[in-house]
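Protein details
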Amino acid sequence: MRLRIAGATFGEIAAEADFRTAAEAALAVQLAAREMPEESPEDVYRMILTRLDAMLAAVWVAATEGDPAAIGTVLRIEERREHLLNVAEERARECARQPLTPEQLSAFGFSA
């Protein structure tokens, strides 16, 4: 899963993890994904923000030294970060506006 999360193709995973074929690697990734606990949207946002922060750190020095490509990369990372935070904020507002269903209330121990 680590390789797939990092963006590796199934062919690359097969070569790295000693699978005979890319199809075998794909099947292994699918099986591993089924065993992973389901992530909340907030967990996914947090994971993506952590990745973006790591990418930003990797190019920051070059950008501050004036490298035009690094500056462009920093700006794109910042745009992605801002977009993601806006999406997360909108989702939180939507959730706050929706009343709980009777099933959700009873799951928290309240009567509907």
